[in-house]
Amino acid sequence: MKDKINPRSFTMTKFLLTLGLILNYTISLMAFINIHKGNEENLLLSTRSYLIIEILLLVSSMVSFIVFFLVRKDINKKINYKYNKKEKTLIYIIFSILSLVFVITFINLFTIFFIFEKIEILIIVLLVVQLIIGISISILESYSRLSEQVIVNKLWFENDEDKKEVKKSETKVINKKENFNPFMEEEDND
Fold it and tell me: Which terminal residue of the chain, N or C, has fewer Cβ atoms less than 10 Å from its own Cβ?
């Protein structure tokens, strides 16, 4: 069982991808809040604190995506699965769209230095584009791992069925009396 991949590991990869995307959305949202000014002062943070928090979120997001790809690669190695051409294309598409999300994140991160009249609209548009791209990445990622997940589920549950068969063979059958009904027993009151 130790050499088998738990099907829940795919849930972990999905969690890592979602976490990375949410961290990128947070960067864009904080950029919008920070750029939205009241009385020519930043509402949220000072410029230095803002940049530190944004860079920390960006690094966390990058780490999440790197771990996501490493876990996917590890699962692939353990089950010795060879990607077909369609799955390789999907993975390359996911990687390129993910790099587009990072480009949008960098644009939002450095909007503090490029303040112009309609920058709030730009940030909102970029955030919406990020959300749409994130949903498409999530769908493509789920679609790209279907074949792998089928193999892992077969291996995992095949082992469970073998254990159940062993338990059934070990159970002893108790001989029962024919036509035995405990409620119909006669009482002997002598």
Answer: C
The CA distance from 80 to 88, in Å, is: 15
Quote the CA–CA distance of 128 and 116 in Å, as a whole number.
20
In contact, 54 and 77? CB cutoff 8 Å: no
Whether 2 shows a pLDDT value over 80: the answer reads: no
Residue pair 137/16 in contact (Cβ under 8 Å)? The answer is no
In the block, tokens 């009241």 appear at 38
Which 8-state DSSP code applies to residue 118? T
pLDDT of residue 9 exceeding 80, the answer is: no
List alpha helices for 145-182, DSSP H: 146-170
Taking the C-alpha atoms of residue 50 and residue 30, their distance in angstroms, rounded to an integer, is 8
Distant-in-sequence, close-in-space partners of 174: CB < 8 Å, separation ≥ 6: none
Average pLDDT over residues 101-126: 82
User: For residue 101, which of 138, 126, 76 has the smallest C-alpha distance?
Assistant: 126
Q: Which residues contact 126 (CB under 8 A, 6 or more apart)?
A: 28, 104, 107, 108
Q: Write down the pLDDT at residue 180.
A: 64
The alpha carbon of residue 81 and the mean position of all alpha carbons in its chain are separated, in whole angstroms, by: 20
Specify the DSSP element, H or E, that contains 76: helix 47-79
